[in-house]
Amino acid sequence: MRAAAVAAGAAALTLVAGAAFAQATPKPEDTEQWTPVPPIVTPGPRASDKPDAPPSDAIVLFDGRSLDQWVTTRDKSPARWVVAGGVLVVSKTAGNIETKRRFRNYQLHLEWRVPRNVTGSGQARGNSGVFLASTGPGDAGYELQILDSYNNATYVNGQAASLYKQYPPLVNAMRPPGEWQTYDVVWTAPVFASDGALKSPARVTAFHNGVLVQNDAVLAGETLYIGKPVYRPYADAPIKLQAHGDPSPPLSFRNIWVRELAAP
Ligand code: MG
Fold it and tell me: What confidence tens digit (pLDDT) does each residue in 188-226 have?
């Protein structure tokens, strides 16, 4: 009996130590949400495969011709993704790119296309992303996820049009690979006091192919792969596109523009 009790005690201690260890080292899975799965909404057919022209007061970030407005996030050197045929193709080896300009509150339009020959599954199928504010190198900031979510299950707060690991999209409005997708986003930047304290959180409203997918979502901080979101003070920031390292063929972008907005 005594030996058994000692063994049970040791096992309990191991469990406690294990739990403490698990708390100290968060895993990516800890912040994955798998249910409920957003219902599928089929967007209306496009009248044309051509993009709509930007409104008159838009700042055009990519018009199909040049990457003048963009730099490599890593070292601020000229962006080295591939511009061909009026389209911007991700270069996974060149890494993330971001705008030279910095923004606070804005309306953003961008179009993206998963290649028809996309491969892989889950997060390794057409992964990219638009960081609504790039607050640092790598994937630092606030990511609106880009992914092939057409018949491709993954954690729902990591599927296309999710605010990564914080909000699944309200619905899945994905078009199939090979077709252009649109994002229209209203970004309200977080506001910080002079001592760095959060005065008001970031908010996102977004439409995917014209369908509402984020309705004034209030963020808990930057979107992190591992761990709970946290805020880090910033004033204005570039918009960043993700060169994700998944092995599937690269995505394309076109028709990217932004309209700066006053604070709401
Ligand atoms: Mg991504």
Answer: 999 999 999 999 999 999 999 999 999 999 999 999 999
- Measured in Å, residue 162 CA sits from the centre of ligand 1 at 10
Listed by start position, the domains of the chain span: 2-260
Ligand 1 centroid–CA 78 distance in Å is 22
Q: Whole-angstrom distance between the N-terminal and C-terminal Cα of the chain?
A: 69
Torsion of CA 144, 145, 146, 150, to 10 degrees: -130
User: What gap in Å lies between CA 230 and CA 236, rounded to an integer?
Assistant: 17
Tens-place pLDDT, residues 9-59 = 444 444 444 555 556 799 999 999 999 999 999 999 988 889 989 999 999
Tokens standing for residue 116: 């028809």
pTM: 0.91
CATH topology classification for 2-260? Jelly Rolls (2.60.120)
The Å distance, Cα 42 to ligand 1 centre, comes to 22
82 three-class SS: strand
